[in-house]
Hints:
Layout lengths: L3 E6 L3 H12 L1 H8 L3 E7 L16 E2 L3 H4 L6 E4 L7 H10 L3 E4 L2 H18 L3 E2 L10 H8 L5 E7 L2 H13 L3 H10 L8 H4 L2 H15 L9 E2 L7 H9 L2 E11 L4 E11 L11 E8 L3 E8 L3 H21 L27 E11 L4 H11 L4 E5 L8 E8 L2 E2 H12 L4 E10 L4
Helix pairs in contact: 1-12, 4-5, 5-10, 7-8, 13-14
EC number: 1.1.1.3
Enzyme class: oxidoreductase
GO biological process, one term: methionine biosynthetic process
Amino acid sequence: MSTIKIGLLGFGTVGTGVVRNFQRNAVTIEKRLGHKIELAKIVDRDATADRGVTLEPGVVTTDVEEVISNPEIDIVIELFGGYEPAKSFILKAIANGKHIVTANKALMAVHGQEIIAAANQQGVSVMFEAAVAGGIPIISAIKENLCSNEFSSILGILNGTCNFILTKMTEDGSDFAPVLDEAQKLGYAEADPTFDVEGVDTAHKIALLSALCFGTTVDFDQVYTEGISKITSMDINFAEQMGYKIKLLAIGKNYGDQIEVRVHPTMIPNSYQLAEVNGVFNAVRLTGDFVGPTLLYGSGAGMDATASAVMGDVMAITRDKISGAQSRVPIMGYCADQIKALPIKAMSEIISHYYLRFTTVDQPGVLAKIAGSLGKYNISIQSMIQPESRNVDTVPIVLMTHAAKEADISSALAEIETLNIISQPTCLIRVEPDL
């Protein structure tokens, strides 16, 4: 067989990492494949910038057609990111018979069904290990290593920026804003961190993982998404007193006839492994009916970790081509005609435990009024903290509830907020005590 030729769209941080991996480990790659692959063309808006790697003249171009319409290119790696022009380039490459490797979680979460349908029609592969959790091989684990399992849940810490911020807030007792500023100075957060800190990046990833685990399609617009920007050092301190840590948790659960897919700050017990995932690291916890709970942990982002995932996909497709296989593993892990739409449970219907922090006027009978409203909606109190207040006029009351329905919590809080004893909006954080 002739040499497998690769075209790369995007020569930024991850693209540079791919070239570095390709060059540094070329001998290892060939030993593992028993075959040669060649990085034939790289497309970028700036064909002359110094990326710290040496390439043959003419490899870097500004013309995307030299990759997506080049009959010699077998596999296209897309690292532009965003929806457009990445989507149009990928669809044209597929129409030209190219296999696709991408790290574009936003594109796959929102437009993945269209891309996968086009790939299935053309008989080419689309692989996106690098789109979720960087160097952690979570997608291949779901699609191949653990594929005989029925998965009941998937929980993940999937955004290094948020995990760094929450870790620093926990360790230093700092509030959100100064830690975000530090994360930006260290390069862990973007100049505009909205997608990260408001949970959108994590929501893209859990949408993909839930679809892979549960054999369904996930409408991204239905994924409940809440970020960490309202978390305070006070809440982190109270969580610690109760034996919990706060993490931005991605949650997917399978009930057979419906699923949960949601992202929000979550309190998890200190005794659980996910609570010990700190800094910029990621972790994913799968629960299968045969394998039980399994935790995968590692670098969730960065040049080298993401490049490792990209090259793993390139090598998997190359192995298929060498062996004459065609899309040996279905793109979403299930045969296309076996993927069934399952409704996503409305947030109002989920069952959770809840941390509630009320800021109330300092007068007798306050707790009785709050407890009365909670009891009216069948919400029972599991534990309580009522520290001395430093403010002469207000006092915090912190409650942990037993399992309750979200709709009942919302109704109770709406009633409590109308009482003349509440001086500030109530803080609510969901709790997962039984992972």
